[in-house]
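Predict the 3D structure for this chain.
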Amino acid sequence: YAGSALTPGTTYYWRILFIDVGGRAGAWSTGTNTFRLAANSAPTAPTSLLTENMTNPTNIADTTPEFSAIYNDPNTGDFANKYRLQVSTSSAFTSLRWDSATSTMATTTVGIRSPDISYAGSALTPGTTYYWRIYFVDGAGAAGAWSAGTNTFSLAVPNSAPTAPTSLLAEGMTNPTNAT
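Done. Predicted structure below.
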């Protein structure tokens, strides 16, 4: 086919005739011959979400954690080349800490884990539970569904300085006056 661009989801009709070596054209093919380009379906929700290669980790040390997920799409030959990721302190995503907006990533095929996506939002607070979600955009530009479920992570609370010592003793006594 060498005509103008075809539109997915549209039915096209075609016919053919042959011309012999003498330049004589035969009859057009009979019957109704059709074809239809499959319409692109948007990706479905990503699955197997990982933060720092773990599911819902707590006490992670990395202050710019990496995220990844499995790309899913009903169009088996499709690929994702963009994503959008959000991190929030609310499971309803009403208080965003980071929204990546639609960002480019390495091409990822259906059923394969995305490359690691590094957190690039405002500083995270140790001990706080953060919620995150992601969707992928396929090669045709269709944005998929947000990941489902509750996906969380939290940073480790750093060790604090020791508290002041108590119960001080000298020679086994509290404040002795005649210690030898």
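The radius of gyration is 31 Å.
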